[in-house]
Amino acid sequence: MRIVITGGHPGPALAVIDHIRTSYPDWKIYFVGTKNPLTDDKALSFEYKEIATRGLSFINLDTGKFDRANKLKLILNSYKIARGYFKSLAILKRIKPDVVLSFGGYLAVPVAFGAKTLGIKILTHEQTFGVGFANRLIARIADRVLLSWEETKLVDPRWKSLVTGLPIRKSVINAKTQMDKSKLPLILVMGGSQGAHFINQLIGNMLDDLLSVFRVVHQVGDSSAYDDYVTLNHKRKEMKQEIGDKYELYKHISTEKIGTYLELADIVISRAGINTMAELLYLQKKAVLIPLLESINPEQLVNARYYKETQLGTYLKQDEVTPEKLHNEINNIAKNNAAKSDIPVFKMLEFAADNVVKELIAVTNG
C-alpha cells in the first residue's frame, strides 16, 4: 500500500507511522508537511527531523492559513491556499497513493481536497474534544472521520465517524516498564514540539530554587526568534558544577527518549496541547499545565480543565502565573498521592494507532 500522511499534529501521525513500519513494513509512506515551523525561521520543524530519522520521504508543502479572525490576511492567504492545492495535486499525481491520512491543520486541507479531486480515499483524524476548522472542511469529503474522544461524536452526526482513540508514541507506551528512578525527584519541562518561550523564561527565573530540591530536564525548543537554548545554556554554565549537573537542557528530546523522561518524571510542567495531555493521561503523571492564552488557542484551556478533573494535576493561566504561584503548585502537587485511575479512555490510548491502521485498511479495501 502507498499512503500519504499529512497534517499539523505530528505526534499521533508519528505514532501511526511507527505502528505501520512495525506491522506492515512493505507499505510505502510519504509525509507531506512543513520543513520550517515559522515564517522566516531557519530552524527545522519537529516533524521534519522525526521523519528524517526514520528515513522516510518528506515532501515540503507551502500553503496558506485560514486566518478567519483577520479578513485581510485571509484574502492575502487565498493565493497561497490555491497554490497549495495545485502543488498537492502535483504531489499526489506523482506518488499515486492508495489513501491519504490527515491529522488536521491548515496544511492538510489542500492535500485532502487534492485527493478528493483525484478520487483517492481520505481519512482524517481529529485529536481534540472539539473539531478544528480545517477538519470540519475535510470531514465533508472524507471517507472516514476518526475521533479521539467519545464526546466529539456529538459535533456532527452526519459524518462517517467512529472513535479510535488518540495515537500516542510507542516510546511512551513502552516507558511503563522503565522505572529506574534517580533518588532526586525529577521535573520535566516541555513546551510542545517547538518549545515555549514564556515557560522557558519562567523556569529560567526559578532555576536556583528548583535545583535546590529537584533535578530538571528541560526541552526548550529551537526557535531562532528567541535563542532560549543559548540563554539558558549560558546560565547553566555559570552555575557551580554540582548544581549545573542537575539541569539537563535540550533543544529537542527525541521520540525515543521522551518516553523514558516522561516515565521518570515526578512532575511535568508543560503546555496543554492535546497530544501532550494524552501521554500524561496514559502515564498518569502529576503535572502543572500552563495552557496558551485563550485568545491564541482556547482548546488548551479545555484540555487543562479536563486534566485537573482527573485529579492528576492542575493548571495555571499564563496571564496569571508567577514564579511564586508555580512554585506553590509544584509543592502542592508533589504532596498529592492521587490513586491511579482505571478510566477506560486511558487504556484505549494504547491501542489507538492500531485502530487507525485497521480503518485505513478497511476504507482502502472497501
Automatic annotation (TrEMBL):
Give the GO cellular component terms, alphabetically.
Answer: plasma membrane
Membrane topology, from the record: Peripheral membrane protein
What reaction does this enzyme carry out catalytically? di-trans,octa-cis-undecaprenyl diphospho-N-acetyl-alpha-D-muramoyl-L-alanyl-D-glutamyl-meso-2,6-diaminopimeloyl-D-alanyl-D-alanine + UDP-N-acetyl-alpha-D-glucosamine = di-trans,octa-cis-undecaprenyl diphospho-[N-acetyl-alpha-D-glucosaminyl-(1->4)]-N-acetyl-alpha-D-muramoyl-L-alanyl-D-glutamyl-meso-2,6-diaminopimeloyl-D-alanyl-D-alanine + UDP + H(+)
Q: Which ranges carry the Glycosyltransferase family 28 N-terminal domain? A: 6-146
Check the record and name the CDD domains matching this protein.
Answer: GT28_MurG (cd03785)
Give the UniProt subcellular location, in the record's own words.
Cell membrane
Residues recorded as binding UDP-N-acetyl-alpha-D-glucosamine, renumbered to this chain, are T6, G7, G8, R169, S193, Q300
**Keywords for this entry?**
Cell cycle, Cell division, Cell membrane, Cell shape, Cell wall biogenesis/degradation, Glycosyltransferase, Membrane, Peptidoglycan synthesis, Transferase
The answer to keyword Protein transport applying to this record is: no
Location of the Glycosyl transferase family 28 C-terminal domain: 187-339
User: Which molecular-function annotation in GO is an example for this chain?
Assistant: UDP-N-acetyl-D-glucosamine:N-acetylmuramoyl-L-alanyl-D-glutamyl-meso-2,6-diaminopimelyl-D-alanyl-D-alanine-diphosphoundecaprenol 4-beta-N-acetylglucosaminlytransferase activity
Which pathway?
Cell wall biogenesis; peptidoglycan biosynthesis
Q: Matching InterPro entries, A to Z?
A: GlcNAc_MurG, Glyco_trans_28_C, GlycoTrans_28_N
Gene Ontology BP, a term: carbohydrate metabolic process
Enzyme class comes to transferase
What is the E.C. number?
2.4.1.227
Name the protein family: Belongs to the glycosyltransferase 28 family. MurG subfamily.
Q: What role does it play?
A: Cell wall formation. Catalyzes the transfer of a GlcNAc subunit on undecaprenyl-pyrophosphoryl-MurNAc-pentapeptide (lipid intermediate I) to form undecaprenyl-pyrophosphoryl-MurNAc-(pentapeptide)GlcNAc (lipid intermediate II).
Query: Which protein are we looking at?
Result: UDP-N-acetylglucosamine--N-acetylmuramyl-(pentapeptide) pyrophosphoryl-undecaprenol N-acetylglucosamine transferase
